[in-house]
C-alpha cells in the first residue's frame, strides 16, 4: 500500500501530526507483510460470514496518554480500503480513561479483525511512550525545564516513537546524525580535546547546532570557551549541576544545558530546579511499557 491508497482524512491527520506519510507507510507495510507472510488471515476467513459488518471499540484498560491514532487509521485504510468504513478517535495527546473507548471503527468485520493486532501493536507501544513522557513532564512542571528524548529508538520506528514523545509533552533531540552535532567523550578522545573537536565540527559545518557532552566542571569550562551552543552534563550530581548552571548563566547566558544520566522521575524535580534547560531521558523510547488497549466487537 502507498499513501495514495489512504483516505484524505488519514493523510491530513498524519500531516497535522508532523508525520511523513512515506515513513508511516513503510512501518505499516512491514507490519502487514509479517502478518501475511504465510498467506491470508485463515482464522478470520473461516469464522466471519462473508459481507458481515460490525462496530468495534478500541478501549484502554488502564490510564494513559493516547498516541498513534492517525497511524492506526492508516492500518485500517490499508486493510479495509479507504472510504469503506467509519472511524472515530480521540485526539492524540489526550488522557485515556479506562473503559472509555478511544477509537471506534465500523466496517467489514473481517477487515477489522485482520487489522486489529497491527493497529493495537502500534497504539499500545506509542501510547506507552506518551504516557511515561507525560509523567516526566508533570514531574518538572513549573521549573521551565523540558523533557527531551534521545536516539535510543527501535530501528524503523524513530519517527513514530519521537512523535509519541511529543504527544506526551516532551521535545525531540536529534532525529538523525546529520541534523545536529553532538560531541561525546569518544569524539573528544579521537580529536584530542574538546576545543579540537568543536573546531573540527565548525570547520565542516559552521552553521550546524553543536552540543558537547562533558563529564566534569573542568570540561564544562572548556566547552563554554570553545563556543558550544548546548552542553550535556553527563552524570553530574545535583550540586555539580547547580554549579554548572551558575557558571554558564554568569558568563554564557545563551548556552543551553541538558542533564543526562542517573535521572529518575523521583529526582527529576530536583534536577530541574537547578535551572537546566533539558532533562535527557533515553528510557522514554527504549524502556516505556506498553499501555493496555483492547479491541472488542459490540
Please tag this protein with its features:
TIM Barrel, 12 helices, alpha/beta, 298 residues, four-stranded antiparallel β-sheet, six-stranded parallel β-sheet, 2 domains, Aldehyde Oxidoreductase, domain 3, nicotinate-nucleotide diphosphorylase (carboxylating) activity, elongated
Write the layout of secondary structure elements.
Elements: H1 8-16, H2 21-35, H3 42-47, E1 53-60, E2 64-65, H4 69-80, E3 86-89, E4 95-96, E5 103-108, H5 109-139, E6 146-148, H6 158-167, E7 181-183, H7 185-191, H8 194-204, E8 210-214, H9 217-226, E9 230-234, H10 238-251, E10 256-260, H11 265-272, E11 278-280, H12 283-286, E12 293-297
Helix pairs in contact: 1-4, 2-4, 4-5, 5-6, 7-8, 8-9, 9-10
Domain Quinolinate phosphoribosyl transferase N-terminal: 41-126
Pathway: Cofactor biosynthesis; NAD(+) biosynthesis; nicotinate D-ribonucleotide from quinolinate: step 1/1
Organism: Nakamurella panacisegetis
Give a written overview of the molecule.
GO terms for molecular function: nicotinate-nucleotide diphosphorylase (carboxylating) activity. This is Nicotinate-nucleotide pyrophosphorylase [carboxylating]. It is an enzyme of class 2 (transferase). The strands form three sheets. A six-stranded parallel β-sheet has the order 6-11-10-9-8-7. It has helices spanning 8-16, 21-35, 42-47, 69-80, 109-139, 158-167, 185-191, 194-204, 217-226, 238-251, 265-272, 283-286, and strands at residues 53-60, 64-65, 86-89, 95-96, 103-108, 146-148, 181-183, 210-214, 230-234, 256-260, 278-280, 293-297. It has 298 residues and is α/β, with parallel strands linked by helices. Helices cover 46% and strands 17% of the residues. Helix 8 (194-204) packs parallel to helix 9. The chain has two domains: 3-134 and 288-297, Aldehyde Oxidoreductase, domain 3 (Alpha-Beta Complex), CATH 3.90.1170; 139-286, Alpha-Beta Barrel (TIM Barrel), CATH 3.20.20. The mean pLDDT is 97.
Amino acid at each position: 500500500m502507498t499513501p495514495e491508497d489512504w483516505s484524505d482524512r488519514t493523510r491530513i491527520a498524519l500531516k497535522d501530526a508532523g508525520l511523513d506519510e512515506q515513513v508511516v507507510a513503510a512501518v505499516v507495510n512491514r507490519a502487514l507483510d509479517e502478518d501475511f507472510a504465510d498467506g491470508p488471515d485463515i482464522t478470520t476467513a473461516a469464522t466471519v460470514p462473508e459481507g458481515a459488518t460490525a462496530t468495534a471499540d478500541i478501549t484502554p484498560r488502564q490510564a494513559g496518554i493516547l498516541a498513534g491514532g492517525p497511524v492506526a487509521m492508516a492500518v485500517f485504510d490499508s486493510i479495509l480500503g479507504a472510504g469503506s468504513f467509519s472511524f472515530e478517535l480521540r485526539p492524540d495527546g489526550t488522557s485515556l480513561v479506562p473503559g472509555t473507548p478511544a477509537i471506534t471503527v465500523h466496517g467489514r468485520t473481517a477487515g477489522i479483525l485482520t487489522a486489529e493486532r497491527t493497529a493495537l501493536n502500534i497504539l499500545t507501544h506509542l501510547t506507552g511512550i506518551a504516557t511515561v513522557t507525560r509523567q516526566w513532564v508533570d514531574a518538572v512542571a513549573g521549573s521551565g525545564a523540558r523533557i527531551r528524548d534521545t536516539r535510543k529508538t527501535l530501528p524503523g520506528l524513530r519517527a513514530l516513537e519521537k512523535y509519541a514523545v511529543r504527544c506526551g509533552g516532551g521535545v525531540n533531540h536529534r532525529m538523525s546524525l546529520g541534523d545536529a552535532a553532538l560531541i561525546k567523550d569518544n569524539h573528544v578522545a579521537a580529536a584530542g580535546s574538546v576545543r579540537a573537536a568543536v573546531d573540527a565540527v565548525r570547520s565542516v559545518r559552521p552553521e550546524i547546532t553543536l552540543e558537547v557532552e562533558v563529564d566534569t566542571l573542568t570540561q564544562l569550562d572548556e566547552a563554554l570557551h570553545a563556543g558550544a551552543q548546548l552542553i550535556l552534563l553527563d552524570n553530574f550530581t545535583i550540586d555539580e549541576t547547580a554549579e554548572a548552571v551558575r557558571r554558564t548563566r554568569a558568563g554564557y547566558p545563551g548556552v543551553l544545558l541538558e542533564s543526562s544520566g542517573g535521572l529518575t522521575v523521583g529526582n527529576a524535580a530536583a534536577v530541574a530546579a537547578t535551572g537546566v534547560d533539558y532533562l535527557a531521558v533515553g528510557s522514554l523510547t527504549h524502556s516505556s511499557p506498553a499501555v493496555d488497549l483492547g479491541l472488542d466487537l459490540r
